[in-house]
Write a structure and sequence with these properties.
RNA-binding protein, 10 strands, 2 domains, Hypothetical Cytosolic Protein, Chain: A, alpha+beta, Ribosomal_eL30-like_sf, about 15% strand, about 210 residues, five-stranded mixed beta sheet, YlxR, YlxR_dom
Length: about 210
């Protein structure tokens, strides 16, 4: 996918401005960070634009798997695009995989910037020093171990498995990751929340 849109697609509409977007299924306006944008590819294929930067008129959905299923079943993309569209059979999987990749990339940025650490001891040190803004824990980690780690009062997300977190931090596995307060922590939390809405085995997101 090159990001080039079909010349026959509808032109950009003026409502793609400001902080809110309207879901083409629920007709509810929400902050764009809580939604998924779609555009038409050159063959009028529906393409998820997870970064919200591809050219073309956007079609927005609330970031929930059930809303996507309703959009597919009710022809919402065809109506929003004002003409026939091609719907990939693996559209939901593309979204899930793309959001997981975005979480991994953001955690990698945080690690390289010295804004994230993994492991029980390093994470606990950051908690005790008041350096924690977000706790990322493995979705397949032991609930009892995650509870013992602490972090009460912190936002907690569980978007990735221990093996996936381990790859980010150069380890076989990682159950506990602590991220410093700031824009990266906020971005990781938002992407984890979008992923939680789409994943079939939904990762929990606690406040």
């Amino acid at each position: 996918m090159t990001g080039t849109t079909d010349p026959g697609a509808p032109e950009e509409e003026p409502d793609e401005t400001g902080p809110l977007r309207r879901c083409i299924v629920e007709r509810e306006s929400l902050p764009k960070e809580r939604m998924i944008r779609f555009v038409l590819g050159p063959g009028r294929e529906v393409v998820p634009d997870l970064a919200g930067k591809l050219p073309g008129r956007g079609m927005w959905l609330s970031a929930r798997g059930d809303v996507l299923e309703r959009a597919l079943n009710r022809g919402a993309f065809t109506r929003a695009a004002r003409g026939p569209v091609t719907l990939p059979s693996d559209l939901r999987a593309r979204i899930e995989d793309g959001l997981r990749a975005r979480v991994r990339d953001l955690l990698g940025f945080a690690r390289r910037a010295g804004q994230a650490v993994s492991g029980w001891q390093a994470g606990r040190e950051w908690l005790q020093a008041g350096r924690a803004g977000l706790l990322v824990q493995a979705s397949d980690g032991s609930p009892a171990e995650r509870a013992r780690f602490g972090g009460r009062g912190l936002p907690v997300v569980t978007p990735l498995t221990a093996a996936e977190l381990g790859v980010v931090f150069g380890r076989d596995h990682a159950v506990h990751v602590v991220v410093a307060p700031g824009r990266l922590a906020d971005a990781i939390r938002l992407e984890a929340e979008r992923l939680a809405g789409f994943a079939r085995a939904e990762p929990e997101v606690n406040s």
